[in-house]
Design a protein that fits this description.
The chain is α/β, with parallel strands linked by helices and 380 residues long. The chain has helices spanning 4-25, 34-48, 74-79, 106-118, 145-149, 156-171, 205-222, 241-244, 268-292, 311-320, 355-363, 370-376; strands at 52-57, 62-63, 66-67, 85-89, 122-126, 183-186, 228-235, 256-263, 296-303, 327-330, 335-337, 342-344, 367-368. It is globular. Bound molecules: beta-D-mannopyranose.
């Protein structure tokens, strides 16, 4: 028989353990829509099974030799299938531009997002937002930017207007039934790199954390958006858990932890370094993710113009090794870039030298593409 006190203790510990289970297995937004919660739990399940979604930035908008052709995708041209994850970019929206900084009209972007979602795919969004202090690009790390936009700062209202524009677009992401489309939102990406205005050059750790928390609280509590999962994303310049977490805003502000890293040149040394570095960092963030019961991802990766025919299975797959990210994403297939005088693309297209190896990659049991996620019906 239980005494009253031990019965009380039992009830209390039951409640406490449930609160813990709740906080660990649900999105940070306590009011997240049911689809958003479903997606989050599914991502965790996927990563526990050792499989990962393959993602491509701007996939449905254009490819190396084409633009805005209905239903076309370089990934589909090569494999007959679409990516499982679509990456989109909001830069320019904060200034009420009709097209993003890479020329993608936001109207088209919205319908691409809707069509990806209708086919059961996952959507992720980044934001190379204009510097709210100087009005220059995201790549303007001018001194004092973050300080000026935090509450009390001279550009705080300006910054809130930017967030208002972002919120209007995010709010408009609904399916045919009017339900919100869940989005993995990755603001202030590569946050440890010195190239963006939110980077560490002129932003203290505390300022960055405040910025991240303010943004999430604003979108969630002021704008009432509850279909976002938040992705914490550093660049690849960390060597320990401590370094990775040095600007972490807290467990209540990140659903997924991730980093970005690319391969930069063709030498064997560089290839081996890429495999070693990616694998080491995925292991570091996997221990963090496991401790926190959150999924982790390689949020951007790739090798510009893929000059190595076997890069997919001989380099990328080795780099992932037996770590278990829930997704990986390669950057956009722009084609020839006038200002760099280089081909700028990260996924193969028909006839590209890594096409055959990409098919091997596509056929691996651990890689998930459009038809795999469509079968999973993860939102239903
Ligand atoms: C970069 C490049 C740029 C692009 C930016 C935002 O890595 O692809 O050309 O403007 O991403 O998408």
């Amino acid at each position: 028989m239980f005494s009253r006190t031990s019965f009380g203790i039992l009830i209390l510990s039951f409640l406490l353990s449930n609160t813990q289970v709740y906080s660990q297995s649900n999105p940070v937004d306590k009011k997240a829509t049911s689809n958003t919660i479903r997606l989050y739990k599914w991502l965790k399940k996927i990563s526990a099974s050792g499989k990962y979604l393959f993602g491509h930035q701007d996939d449905l908008a254009y490819g190396v030799n084409w633009k805005y052709e209905d239903g076309r995708s370089d990934i589909k041209d090569v494999t007959g299938d679409y990516p499982a994850l679509y990456g989109w970019e909001l830069g320019g929206l904060e200034n009420k531009q009709e097209n993003n900084l890479d020329g993608v009209p936001f109207k088209k972007m919205r319908s691409f997002i809707q069509s990806g979602y209708e086919h059961g795919a996952v959507i992720t969004i980044s934001w190379h937002g204009t510097n709210p202090l100087t009005g220059k690009s995201a790549w303007d790390p001018s001194e004092g930017t973050v300080a000026s936009i935090l509450p009390g700062g001279e550009k705080h209202d300006n910054f809130k207007h930017q967030l208002d524009e972002i919120a209007i677009f995010l709010e408009s992401l609904k399916d045919k039934e009017g339900d919100y489309i869940p989005v993995l939102f990755r603001p202030y990406h590569e946050l440890t790199g010195n190239w963006f205005w939110w980077g560490p050059r002129y932003t203290t750790k505390e300022q960055f954390k405040k910025l991240f928390r303010f943004t999430i609280d604003y979108l969630k509590d002021v704008k009432g958006l509850h279909h976002l999962l938040y992705v914490y994303n550093t660049s690849g310049d960390f060597n320990s858990k401590k370094e990775f977490l040095s600007r972490y805003p807290g467990d209540n502000y990140a659903d997924i932890v991730s980093f970005d890293e690319y391969q930069h040149d063709t030498t064997i040394k560089s290839k081996n370094k890429f495999v070693f570095e990616i694998n080491k960092k995925l292991k570091i963030i996997s221990t963090i993710a496991n401790d926190k019961n959150k999924p982790y991802a390689l949020a951007e990766t790739g090798y510009e113009a893929i000059p190595d025919a076997n890069w997919w299975t001989h380099t990328l797959v080795k780099a992932i090794g037996n770590t278990q990210p829930c997704y990986i994403l390669v950057w956009r297939n722009h084609g020839y870039q006038e200002h760099t005088k280089r081909m700028h693309y990260y996924a193969p297209y028909k006839g590209q030298i890594s096409e055959a190896d990409f098919l091997n990659f596509y056929r691996l049991p651990q890689t998930l593409f459009g038809s795999d996620v469509e079968k999973c019906k993860l939102y239903r």
